[in-house]
Structure formats: C-alpha cells, structure tokens
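Could you help me review a protein record that somebody else here produced? Here is the record exactly as it was handed to me:
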Amino acid sequence: MTYCVGLKLNAGLVLLSDTRTNAGLDNIACYRKMFFFETPGERVIAIMTAGSLSVTQTTLARLDEANEDEMADETTSILKAPTMLQVASIIGDTLSRTRREIADQCRELRQQASASMIVAGQRRGGDMRMFLIYPEGNFIEATEDTPFLQIGEHKYGKPILDRVVTPATSLADAQKAVLLSMDSTLRSNLSVGMPLDLAIIEKDACKVGARRRILEGDPDFMQMSAEWSAALRDSFVKVTI
C-alpha cells in the first residue's frame, strides 16, 4: 500500500509520500510515488500516486508521451492546459482509461487494478489548486474547510491534520504536520515505509522550491518522532476524566 498527503495553504503546497510497494507479505519493493511536470516560472504540477503500480506507471508514461507529442495541444498535454482544472481533467481521463484497460487484461486472473492520485500545482497567473483523482477519473478539490488531501493508508495520519492544519498554517509548521502524520502511519501500518519524499512549492513561484528524501534512520526524523511520542505520553498523563 502507500500513504501520500498534500496540504494546500495560503503560503504554498506541502507534499509528502512514502515509497513502499508490496504485492503480498513477501514481495516488498521501493518505488517513488511523487512526480513533477515543471516549466519553472511558468507552471508546476506535482502528482502523487497510490494503488496498482502498473496503472500508475502506465498513466504517467502516457502523460509524458502526450507532453512530448509534436501535435500536443491544451486538450492533450498537461504542460499546455490553460488551467489546473483542465490539468486534473486530462489526468483523470488518462487514469480512468488506463485503469479500465489493465482491469480488462486482468479479469481472467481475478485481479483488481485500481489507483488514485493527488494532483497539485499552479500556472503563472492562476491559483494554486489541489485535487484527489479517483480511479474512475472523477475528482474532488481541497478547500478552505479541508485544506489537505490523502490517498492510500490515510486513517492513521488524519487525526493530527484535522486538529492542527488550517489554510493559515505556515510552511514550516505544515512540514512538521505531514511528517508527524506519516510517523503515525509508519507506526501503525507495515505496508507504508521509508524512504520518504517531501516537497515544498511556494505560492506564485511556479516551481518546486525544496525537495528532500528522508532515509531510514534519518536522525532529524527519529528525533522528531521521539519528541512527539514523549509529548503524547506527557499529555496523556495530564488529562483528567
């Protein structure tokens, strides 16, 4: 499985994904799940993926192929689409078509092929937007009321986001929030694992501002995890009922 989370804040976008992929308990691998399509200063599009690896890899390959096509236009290429809404529509259509094709191929094997994606970004002159795209190609959007989206094993990391994240959250605090959300998930679900990929996109920059890969045993992540565990234990003791 996997866990990916994206925050859309007044100050920018904060994105985090794990890299574990498994096909059963004895077939575990490491695959990147965060991808970027970027024309720095003009537009930046981030995609995080969860679900069938064959579906997500084929979808991304088709998006790449469409971008490189000499006949590409605003209806086929996410690097030419005039709005982020159109970007989400192109990706949703590509994901849906790919999922159906692979599901048909796997029908006789009684295997499921499904995937979902978080798509976030901005084009010059437009607003930052973030969408969760479902396997069928339809999507929802992050809002002022719910400024974050999750895919994969989301339930373990959701409570802290519900409690602390608002559109006014700073980028620094947002990084802390997504990392603690991931830490909770790592502790509770073996299908999510390190390394982690973290990215920051500042508002109106239209480019990836910072990227970081967090490896197993990273001292900063381990210290944060230990401090959070200690803080929770201390708070638990102080609560009265």
In short: The two ends are 37 Å apart (CA to CA). Residues 3-238 form a domain with the Glutamine Phosphoribosylpyrophosphate, subunit 1, domain 1 fold (CATH 3.60.20.10).
